[in-house]
């Protein structure tokens, strides 16, 4: 079943979550019409490879054209209209930046997998629940409402300032007219009456000046309160959501909404600043005793500038954390001399700033006491922000050719360079720029989340464990000494993150039973998820009891095995995987003989085995487990074919396949049939031949079990049999005779 088919079967509350991340950037009708094709492409790789992204974009447009031809024949007018609109969108919006559509589709597929995993859980995880808090959503709506109200207030004050300017111009004209009269004329009753009118007008001017200053003060106060409270919380929440998304959690959205709020507030502050400048002009033309402008204007202007400084400083964010294109699902782990990507955005989107802001990237700028190792960034480390490279028109800059290089120590050799580089050592990528606008000069700085530097890909698993633990445990964006004394983590949150590793990396998360097994393996006992605190050492540094490896190394090897060798079977949900030997026997003991299940080895790294139940002549139940298959053997023979062709030779009996039903009662061929590399009756005949006179061979896995054995034995070496020989045997011999010949 395709991933999209599974999504469509979700409950309405999960379908509403799916609906939230499909918009005009990637319309849902395309996801629906091209479901199989979209899922068969590697969008994650394309998101970091421009040439590959361009090819996929062109192929996507071809797929849309084919759908257009089909619906045109069906005369489906509405669908024809929508597909033409989508085609125009794809060609116009993404032609100059094909990687953006790859990022969007990759994120959508990943978020679907996460929602499917969440739907299989009995309850929502604590981290995800905190991110989807209804109070947070209400605050988002309040922020947007208040920003809109502030913008309207600033515009209304503009009208008051214009009225004040018109009133003062009239006063100036009438006052200068009187001043131009001869002394005798000034003593006339008419002139005295005009002077009284001017005094009344001056009183009105004074009142209006005070009123305008009061309104400006209220706008400034509202902006100050909004920035100090709700907007700051919104920005911190977005940064926390980004942290969680980086370690496999829910897709973090909301940056466009924040950009809209920041931009509107900046526009309002600049508008207020112009109003204060206009009041200064009016002051130069007219002042009087008790004039409020020279008293209040400097304080208000100082407050406006202060708010602008803070607004700009908070608006400079890392939109996409540092990540190597070769490992898109392992952000913040960087390898020396390997390029990485990182993207920054200024949330204040003003046309005047396009191509005017140059950003400089550095590493470990202010951390002289944290690490003994020193790095420099090679490649283009200064670039200008612009609105042209992003499909949504944001003011951003993406560094794509940076690579870290370790500097030589004073002794002339590299410090800790090589396979023993410390994966708990945190570093920081910093960015700085300067904004010059309307007479203001503002220096901006921001930093990435802490990154881990490795010199060999073999260090990547432990480095990724450090990234997981840091971002799970703290929302401090720059605690580079974190691992000097790493805090414990709540078991319930850690298990949720472990499930995310599977949903984001291999397409299917873990259910409650699988998580229970991991919890017992981590703690050595059955514990309450909510109360138990797990140490960093227990997770990643201490060996499992009786083993030569840690829990994390064991789990990472399983992820690698799934990704490279058994991914389709895992996505279909046919691999129970995380189940102890004791539990598997409880599950199988009352099942039909030949019922089996698939589980990951607890003693071998990156191994998968299967156990089946059998019944002896005296009625006793027995269990057999095959020696775990690792990536070496699975590279030679697909796992689905192993399950199909597996044979057991019992003493004095013909070989037979003992695997009949996948637990609980699914016929084996029904579960795995679509994953077989070829059906047995499709094996080539001798006339088909092989290359250079050889006939092709096929490998059949065989195990031998003795009657008096009390423990399951390992399988023998794989036995070769050519497809042509097998086909001829099936034509001329009965199945029993074939099995006898094999034995």
From TrEMBL:
InterPro entries xref list: p53-like_TF_DNA-bd_sf, SH2, SH2_dom_sf, STAT, STAT4_CC, STAT4_DBD, STAT4_SH2, STAT_linker
Pfam families: SH2, STAT_alpha, STAT_bind, STAT_int, STAT_linker
SUPFAM superfamilies assigned to the protein according to its UniProt record, in alphabetical order: p53-like transcription factors, SH2 domain, STAT, Transcription factor STAT-4 N-domain
Keyword Nucleotide-binding assigned: no
Subcellular compartments: Cytoplasm; Nucleus
PROSITE patterns from the UniProt entry: SH2 (PS50001)
Coiled-coil stretches noted in the UniProt entry, renumbered to this chain: none
SH2 domain segment(s): 570-672
GO cellular component labels: cytoplasm; nucleoplasm
GO molecular-function term, one example from the UniProt record: DNA-binding transcription factor activity, RNA polymerase II-specific
Family, similarity comment: Belongs to the transcription factor STAT family.
Name listed for the protein in its UniProt record: Signal transducer and activator of transcription
Organism encoding this protein: Eulacestoma nigropectus (wattled ploughbill)
């Amino acid at each position: 079943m395709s991933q999209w088919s599974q999504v469509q079967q979700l409950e309405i509350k999960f379908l509403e979550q799916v609906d939230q991340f499909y918009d005009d950037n990637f319309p849902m009708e395309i996801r629906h019409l091209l479901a199989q094709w979209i899922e068969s492409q590697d969008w994650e790789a394309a998101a970091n490879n421009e040439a590959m992204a361009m090819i996929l974009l062109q192929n996507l447009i071809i797929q849309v054209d084919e759908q257009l031809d089909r619906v045109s024949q069906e005369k489906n007018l509405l669908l024809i209209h929508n597909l033409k609109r989508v085609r125009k969108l794809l060609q116009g919006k993404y032609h100059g930046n094909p990687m953006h559509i790859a990022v969007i589709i990759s994120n959508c597929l990943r978020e679907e997998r996460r929602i499917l995993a969440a739907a299989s859980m009995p309850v929502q995880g604590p981290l995800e629940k905190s991110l989807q808090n209804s109070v947070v959503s209400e605050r988002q709506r309040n922020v947007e409402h208040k920003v809109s109200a502030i913008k309207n207030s600033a515009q209304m004050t503009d009208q008051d300032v214009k009225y004040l300017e018109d009133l003062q111009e009239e006063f100036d004209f009438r006052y200068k007219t009187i001043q131009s009269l001869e002394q005798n004329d000034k003593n006339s009753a008419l002139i005295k009456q005009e002077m009284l009118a001017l005094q009344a007008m001056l009183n009105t001017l004074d009142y209006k000046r005070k009123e305008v200053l009061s309104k400006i003060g209220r706008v400034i106060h509202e902006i100050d309160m909004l920035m100090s409270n709700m907007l700051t919380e919104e920005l911190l929440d977005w940064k926390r959501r980004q942290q969680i998304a980086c370690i496999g959690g829910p897709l973090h959205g909301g940056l466009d909404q924040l950009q809209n709020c920041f931009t509107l507030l900046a526009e309002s502050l600049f508008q207020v600043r112009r109003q204060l400048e206009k009041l200064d002009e009016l002051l130069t033309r007219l002042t009087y005793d008790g004039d409020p402008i020279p008293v209040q204007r400097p304080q208000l202007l100082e407050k406006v500038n202060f708010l602008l400084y803070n607004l700009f400083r908070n608006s400079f964010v890392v939109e996409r954390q540092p990540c190597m294109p070769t490992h898109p699902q392992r952000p913040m782990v960087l390898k020396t001399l390997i390029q990485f990507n990182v993207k920054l955005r200024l949330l204040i989107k003003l046309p005047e700033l396009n191509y005017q802001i140059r950003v400089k990237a550095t590493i470990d700028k202010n951390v002289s006491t944290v690490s003994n190792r020193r790095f420099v960034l090679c490649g283009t480390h200064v670039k200008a922000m612009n609105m042209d490279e992003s499909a949504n028109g944001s003011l951003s800059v993406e560094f794509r050719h940076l690579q870290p290089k370790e500097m030589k120590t004073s002794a002339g050799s590299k410090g800790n360079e090589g396979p023993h580089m410390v994966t708990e050592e945190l570093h920081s990528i910093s960015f700085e720029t300067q904004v010059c606008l309307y007479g203001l000069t503002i220096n901006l700085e921001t930093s990435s989340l802490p990154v881990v530097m490795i010199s060999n890909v073999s260090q990547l698993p432990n480095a990724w464990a450090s990234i997981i633990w840091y971002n799970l445990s703290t929302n401090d964006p720059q605690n580079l000494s974190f691992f000097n004394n790493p805090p414990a983590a709540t078991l319930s949150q850690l298990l949720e993150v472990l499930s995310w590793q599977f949903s984001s990396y291999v397409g299917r998360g873990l259910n409650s039973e699988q998580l229970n097994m991991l919890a017992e393996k981590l703690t050595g006992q059955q514990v309450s998820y909510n109360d138990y605190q797990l140490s960093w050492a227990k997770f990643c540094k201490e060996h499992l009891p009786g083993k030569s490896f840690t829990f994390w190394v064991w789990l990472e090897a399983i992820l690698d095995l799934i990704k490279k060798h058994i991914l389709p079977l895992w996505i279909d949900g046919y691999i129970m995987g995380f189940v102890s030997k004791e539990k598997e026997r409880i599950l199988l003991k009352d099942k039909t003989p030949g019922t089996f299940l698939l589980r990951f080895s607890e003693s071998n790294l990156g191994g998968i085995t299967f156990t089946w139940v059998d019944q002896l002549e005296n009625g006793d139940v027995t269990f057999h487990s095959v020696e775990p298959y690792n990536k070496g053997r699975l590279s030679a023979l697909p796992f689905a074919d192993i399950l199909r062709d597996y044979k057991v030779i019992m003493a004095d009996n013909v070989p037979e396949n003992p695997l009949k039903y996948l637990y609980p009662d699914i016929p084996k061929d029904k579960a795995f049939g679509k994953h077989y590399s070829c059906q047995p009756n499709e094996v080539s005949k001798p006339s088909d031949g092989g290359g250079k006179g050889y006939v092709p061979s096929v490998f059949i896995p065989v195990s031998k079990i003795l009657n008096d054995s009390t423990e399951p034995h390992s399988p023998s070496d794989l036995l070769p049999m050519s497809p042509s020989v097998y086909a001829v045997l099936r034509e001329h011999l009965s199945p029993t005779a074939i099995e006898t010949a094999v034995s």
